[in-house]
Structures are given as structure tokens and as C-alpha cells.
Design a protein that fits this description.
The protein is of the alpha/beta class and about 350 residues long. It has helices at about 10-15, 25-35, 45-60, 65-75, 105-110, 130, 145-150, 175-200, 255-290, 325-330, and strands at about 15, 85-90, 120-125, 160-170, 215-220, 220-230, 240-250. The chain is about 35% helix and about 15% strand. It comes from Trematosphaeria pertusa.
């Protein structure tokens, strides 16, 4: 069954800029260079070569069949045993209350509401509830008490704080553009969720890095890694952006090695600085949540996602990064590349 999706014109009306040329905020540019583009030393993984070898048979499959062949090699296995503390869920709905609101009644009337956000896969932190179902019990980044603090404030109860989502298409079927529009919608919901979380915790807008989300689109032949973030204009109106940091085909191994390195750097960051930041904010979030709603109540945050009823005061837009003219014309930002024979991956890499 084909999933519903929103065309780029509708997403643009909702202030979601797909495949944007908007400049990177300076803090996000630093994050890309210092975290996501880190070199991974050591021996290379066989998974990139396996993707190249499986491209031809995967091209004959429908969407679920192609996903079954390639997704475990490019992303992360659905089993929580693959990466300790991390879990991936297929086709899980995200709470649509975190979708951007229509900027005006006219937009909502003419375009209708955005469709239900549902990634083909969503990767986040393993919940203590699920970890306890395994024998022996699996390690998690969060305690049962911390999970309880987030009750009634999750994108999906089965997965905590998604860090990566993906949309997949077959080689012969829906266009890659459809996957891009779907992941733009999903990414905006995740960014808003993270923004609201930090807004409630600290009574300030989240930084672009705190609310950053990463997604992948793939149609068997092409892999694209996207970053999603938001900036609020002078009137407090959120603007959502989605921009590529890496695109490659599945025909050759070296670019796939680089794609997998970016995703492994993402997981390493998620299990270090990202989770530390989230957990540091959690007591503040919970105390303010109790003040807003009381224990056991559903918290429906409204922190300026474009609603006319929003009461959040205006916040200045993040300072954009202005690269030199010759770089400004090219996207995504390019990292320095070593010769293919020198690009290697660690023997103790994450088994993804």
C-alpha cells in the first residue's frame, strides 16, 4: 500500500524548504565538519561492497524487497542487539501534533493538513521497556524513571528521541522526489519535537544542533543523506530546511564507504554528546512539565510551530554561515577526500 505524501508546493506553503539552497547556520557547519565528517581509521567494512553487489538484484524488487536487501547494510539492523542502546522501528507513526501548523487559515483551507508522518524506518534510543523483554536485559541510555518523565511527550512510545529516519523507494516505481517529500515532512516533525523539548526544559529555543535531525532517502540506485533544522524569523514563524550533505550512487564502493562513515559518526555522536545533552535537560523538562500540566497529564506543547495562536515571543534567526563565493554555488559542503585506497574504516566499527 502506497503511503500518502505532500507535494513540494504544499510543503513550501507550510514553510518546509525541501532540497534547500539556504546557507548553513554557522553552528551547524561546525557540527558537520567536526562530528559528521570525522575520518574513521582502520580496516574497511565489507558492507559497502555488498551494497554494490546487491544493486542489480535489488533493482528487480518492490519497495519492501529492496529495503530488506539494502537497508541492513546501509543503516542499522532492526535488532537492538546490533548497536547497544540503539533501536530501529519500521513504519512507526510519529505524533502528528509536532508537524508544522499552517501559517494561515488560507493555507490550511487550500492545501489541507499535512499527511501522517511515518518513516519507513526510524532509529533512536532503545526504551527501557523493550530492553527488559530481552534475556539478559539489554543496556539502555535511559532509566525507567527517565522514560516515565517523558510519558505523554514522545514522537512514538516505542522509540526515544529519534536520531535518524529513512524513506525507501524501488528502482522502478515512485520517484525519489516522493521519498524526499516524505522525509521532509518526517524530519520537520522530529525537529519540532526536539525544539519543544528544549524549549520546555530551558524556556529558550533549542539550538540548531540540539534540534538537528538526519534522514536518508534511497531508491536502490541513489543514496542521499539529509540534514533537517529550523530557524525562526523575526516574527517567531518557524522555517524548516532540509539540505543534503552527501549523495552517491550504489554503483561504486568508495562513495558508499563515505556515506556509511557519516552515519556511523552520527551514531557515535548520538551515544555521546547528544544523549548527554538530552539527559541533562530531562530534570528541567520534567519539573516544567509538572508545572504546565501536572503528573500523568498529556503535555501538548505549543512553542511557535506556525499557529496563529502561538504566544511565544519572537526570537532572532540563527546567524547564517557565509562560505566563500566559489563554495556558495555548490552543495552540499565538501569534505576533503583521501584516495579511495586510503579511505578505511575501523575494525571495531559499529556492526551496521
Amino acid at each position: 500500500m502506497k503511503k500518502k505524501w505532500d507535494k513540494q508546493s504544499k510543503l513550501a506553503a507550510y514553510e518546509i524548504d525541501v532540497d534547500t539552497t539556504h546557507p548553513w547556520p554557522q553552528a551547524l557547519q561546525r557540527h558537520i565538519e567536526q562530528e559528521l565528517f570525522k575520518q574513521i581509521p582502520g580496516t574497511r567494512s565489507p558492507n559497502a561492497k555488498k551494497i554494490v553487489d546487491l544493486r542489480r538484484p535489488a533493482a528487480l524488487e518492490n519497495e519492501p524487497g529492496a529495503n530488506r536487501l539494502l537497508e541492513p547494510l546501509l543503516l542499522f539492523s532492526n535488532s537492538p542487539l546490533a548497536v547497544p542502546g540503539i533501536a530501529s522501528k519500521p513504519n512507526h507513526n510519529l505524533d502528528r501534533q509536532f508537524l508544522p501548523n499552517a501559517p494561515s487559515k488560507i493555507i490550511e483551507t487550500e492545501y489541507g493538513l499535512l499527511t501522517q508522518p511515518q518513516p519507513d524506518t526510524a532509529t533512536g534510543y532503545l526504551s527501557p521497556t523493550e530492553a527488559g523483554k530481552y534475556t539478559p536485559r539489554l543496556a539502555t541510555a535511559f532509566t525507567k524513571e527517565e522514560q516515565a518523565m517523558l510519558r505523554h511527550f514522545t514522537l512514538n512510545p516505542g522509540l526515544l528521541f529519534p536520531l535518524l529516519t529513512s524513506q525507501w523507494k524501488p528502482a522502478n516505481g515512485e520517484a525519489h522526489q516522493v521519498a524526499m517529500c516524505q522525509t521532509a515532512r518526517d524530519g520537520a516533525a522530529v525537529v519540532n519535537y526536539l525544539h519543544d523539548y528544549y524549549q520546555i526544559a530551558y524556556n529558550r529555543p533549542a539550538t540548531v544542533v540540539e534540534a538537528l535531525h538526519v534522514s536518508v532517502t534511497c531508491n536502490v540506485e541513489i543514496v542521499n543523506i539529509w540534514l533537517h533544522w529550523r530557524e525562526d524569523d523575526g516574527a517567531g514563524q518557524p522555517k524548516h530546511y532540509m539540505k543534503s550533505i552527501h549523495a552517491c550512487t550504489t554503483w561504486t564502493e568508495p562513495p558508499l564507504l563515505e556515506a556509511r562513515a557519516i552515519l556511523k559518526n552520527l551514531v557515535r555522536y548520538a551515544l555521546d554528546e547528544r544523549v548527554a545533552s538530552i539527559k541533562a535537560a530531562l530534570p528541567h523538562f520534567y519539573n516544567n512539565k509538572l508545572k504546565m500540566k501536572g503528573p500523568g497529564s498529556r503535555l501538548k506543547a505549543n512553542t511557535g510551530r506556525g499557529s496563529a495562536a502561538s504566544i511565544r515571543p519572537p526570537t532572532p534567526m540563527s546567524t547564517p554561515f557565509s562560505p566563500p563565493p566559489q563554495v556558495r554555488q555548490s552543495m552540499p559542503p565538501q569534505k576533503k577526500r583521501r584516495p579511495a585506497e586510503e579511505r578505511v574504516e575501523s575494525e571495531d566499527e559499529l556492526q551496521v
